[in-house]
Structures
1.
Amino acid sequence: MSNSSSSKPMLAAANSKQPTAMAMALLPLLSMVSSFLLLSSMAELPRLEHPLKSDGSLSLLVIGDWGRKGTFNQTLVAAQMGRIGESLDIDFVVSTGDNFYEEGLTGIDDKEFEESFTNIYAAESLQKQWYSVLGNHDYRGDVLAQLSPVLRQIDRRWLCLRSFVLNAEIVDFFFVDTTPFVEHYWNKPKGHHYDWRGVAPRETYISNLVKDLDLALKESPARWKVVVGHHTIRSASVHGDTIELQLLLLPILKENGVDFYVNGHDHCLEHISSNDCPLQFLTSGGGSKAWRGILNSVSDKLEFFYDGQGFMSLQLTKTQAHVVFYDAFGNALHKQAITKQFHSQI
């Protein structure tokens, strides 16, 4: 696999934090996950299908941390998504979560669904299927509302599930519900209410999810494997690395040859390359409010970092992946091409 980049990496300044007390606290959960991986033999994640273009390619946009009724440049970003979406003839859009601020939706009749989604992403090119995961802000509202098929009657583009697999022949996308992994949402919610219906108890939920993801990855024959979650695994911005995902999710991604981990959560755009495997960490969390003013060091290679609003595109063929990050004005800030050797079977 070969990489080529068109932008210069930005250097980071502060020291990265090492997992210590948190890692020790997660040891019982790690043990439970290991037991499930040994005992289970069937993946249970819901599976969806999406066709390729007639030429065998696929193109999509990725946006995260967006739902603010058009404020904080959400409308501007949406307009440029429409323009780029048309030029790339996109097949669908991926949302990396935090779909509705600040406290998710209040119910299936919450007008914010239309005010932050339907009315904002109105460009013709964006009238394609949206595949979405939940973020931590979504969990502060009525989670079941976002998951409800009733919303599809309001806007047919909307599809949000906790975790699922999307197959598009040459690529499998594995959407993962990362919010329940983060322990402090459970133990120290800072006055926020989290809707854990269908999730509690945490340990069982995470163990089953990790087991199902591992098996789904192992069974996947796709040329490309892309895992989508809300929370960062690697990040140079304010939230930094998510230690629970480093300990519970990252080893599975590496073991199963995942090509991209795509996330939001940090309100920025960034690309980080793993030092010890081909895995690329792609953050697209600039859908609205951004400009945190923080840039920390990371243990892997920081290829690109932008602290402002924007979005990402991904184009795939059997042998090539093209990643582009755009700002709120539609300027291409960073491009990365990744090539896979194709060996035909005789």
2.
Amino acid sequence: MDQDNKTLSSAFTLIGLFTDSKTSGFLFGFICAIFFMAIIANGVMIFLIHIDLHLHTPMYFLLSHLSFIDMMYISTIVPKMLADYVLGDGTISFIACTAQYFLYMGFVGAEFFLLGLMAYDRYVAICNPLRYPVLMSRRVCCMILASSWFGGALDSFLLTPITMSLPFCASHKINHFFCEAPTMLRLACGDKAAYEMVMYVCCVMMLLIPFSVVIASYARILITVHQMKSAEGKKKAIATCSSHMMVVMLFYGAALYTYMLPQCYHTPIKDKIFSAFYTILTPLLNPVIYSLRNRDVTGALRRLLKK
């Protein structure tokens, strides 16, 4: 009980990304610009999909929710990091760290599942185009969203109590820019066996299951594309899937390193780089990739600007 009270009343110190005084100012400005551009880009994407009738399709309905998730999870991390630099104080209370961990795991978990299930949408569009309106009905889209949010919430409710109930009797300095699972685990000195088991199961569920859906969907897509006789049809099918595949590889690649690679291969600097990639850069890259490589989105933007 005393240990629990001590933990609840204690605070952590986030070392952050801005550890080199020579480059900290530039890095601060760069991340600040990325944050605001990500918020604006995803906001514009949601707005375009909402007002343009040409984008009222299942794919863009799911994409609008992907943009919303991106806005939410980058907002749980970057504002605190920027404020710490301005104020010169990286202190974060136990409750705030717990809240950040809970929200981050929920939003990122939901994105893992949503990206995986979006591959099913591409599979139906290319392999079963005539049945697309039935197989990707409004009801199915809502089920996909509900499944994604349920998966994210499950990760949060499972991992947060276990992680934050561990006794943090080592240094309370977090060599990271937010309260992330592997980093918090390194601070704990209690019995970590139960946590590591649950963490492994959650990672399998959160990463490998959606990724398996992606692999299976795109395997069927490649077979279908290979059997197409029309060169124009093949080109269109590849163009339709390429944006989603780029986003999946960027997001899952960095996350697989963070959560699935054994701790002996991790270093603080590598952890920061990979975490920054999929928590800060990816929310900006998602709308950029989908808009620049998509004629429907660029067309909707042109129609909006002409009004």
